[in-house]
Design a protein that fits this description.
The structure is a single chain. 28% of the residues are buried. The chain has seven helices and no strands. The longest helix is centred in the middle third of the chain and has 28 residues. The protein is 69% helix and 0% strand.
């Protein structure tokens, strides 16, 4: 009997972690906390928190953030190649997105970058940070990259913390229960195949 073990519902534990992230929005940080929630959810879509899932998520989101930087830089250089009108600049942006998107997807064929949806998480988070005026230096592309990549990297950690807060530490098995478990394990391993 485990009287005294507290088990928080996941709704409560996850909300505690979410509450803590809100303070990252304050000046001077002004960080895009929504990126944490995108990769937090993405971590559970991968099957849940693990070191392997965190590594693949962080690798992919950082790569996607890098592609967003390339897209912005290319658009700065080629944005008026068809003219200065709205349609001409939109067409130029479309050409940039076509090539950057194709390259991002082709990069996803390489095993370390195979988590393609997460590359789009990083890409979109960087765009939203830069064009939305977020990050520790609003309007600075490098700051937008670092801010978005850092927030995306915190998602798997937030997923882990939410689960850690949810469950109380496991109590040591009672001697009688442990003996029954050992007997069942021994009988299963001795059973003919």
């Amino acid at each position: 009997m485990n009287i005294g073990r507290i088990r928080l519902p996941h709704e409560v534990s996850a909300s505690i972690v979410a509450f803590a992230t809100v303070f990252l929005l304050l000046s001077p940080l002004n960080l895009p906390t929504w990126a944490i929630f995108i990769t937090w959810a993405g971590t559970f879509m991968q099957g849940g928190p693990s070191i392997a899932n965190a590594i693949s998520m962080v690798t992919a989101t950082t790569t996607g953030a890098g592609f967003a930087v390339v897209a912005v830089l290319l658009n700065r250089e080629t944005g008026t190649m068809f003219g200065t009108g709205e349609f001409a600049q939109t067409l130029a942006l479309g050409v940039v997105i076509f090539f950057v998107n194709g390259t991002l997807l082709a990069t996803g064929r390489l095993k370390p970058f195979a988590l393609i949806p997460a590359m789009f998480f990083g890409f979109a988070s960087t765009f939203a940070t830069y064009f939305g005026g977020f990050g520790y230096d609003a309007g600075n592309l490098g700051a937008a990259f670092l801010s978005a990549a850092a927030m995306c990297a915190l998602g798997p950690l937030a997923a882990t913390l939410g689960l850690r807060l949810m469950f109380a530490p496991q109590a040591a098995p009672e001697p009688e229960q442990q003996q029954k478990t050992e007997e069942v394990t021994a009988s299963v391993s001795e059973a003919p195949a």
